[in-house]
Design a protein that fits this description.
The chain is mainly α. The protein is 44% helix and 11% strand.
């Protein structure tokens, strides 16, 4: 596992690199730290990517990721909201 140099996890962000190394040793995986990456004076992080996405700045998210942002998942049956939105959009466009 490759983690950032300021990686924290768990309740109250109490877990750190050293704890993750111990967990890795117990479960058979190696943990290495990676130095921060800076682009246009911005430290690249999942927080920075999420902020760009929340602002609708796909171009910024792409520059941070080094590739176009993508998401995947499985569509499951629900309340039919997607179909209603699609049909509503079709009526407005007509």
């Amino acid at each position: 596992m490759l983690i950032g140099d300021d990686f924290r996890f768990g309740s109250g962000r109490s877990g750190d690199f050293e704890l993750m190394k111990k967990i890795g040793a117990l479960h058979g995986f190696e943990v290495q730290a990676m130095h921060s990456v800076v682009h246009d004076n911005v430290r690249i992080s999942s927080t920075a990517v999420r902020a760009a996405l929340a602002e609708g700045r796909m171009d910024v998210a792409q520059s941070y990721l080094g590739r176009p942002y993508s998401i995947s998942g499985r569509v499951e049956h629900g309340d039919g909201m997607g179909k209603r939105l699609w049909l509503s959009d079709r009526q407005i466009s007509s």
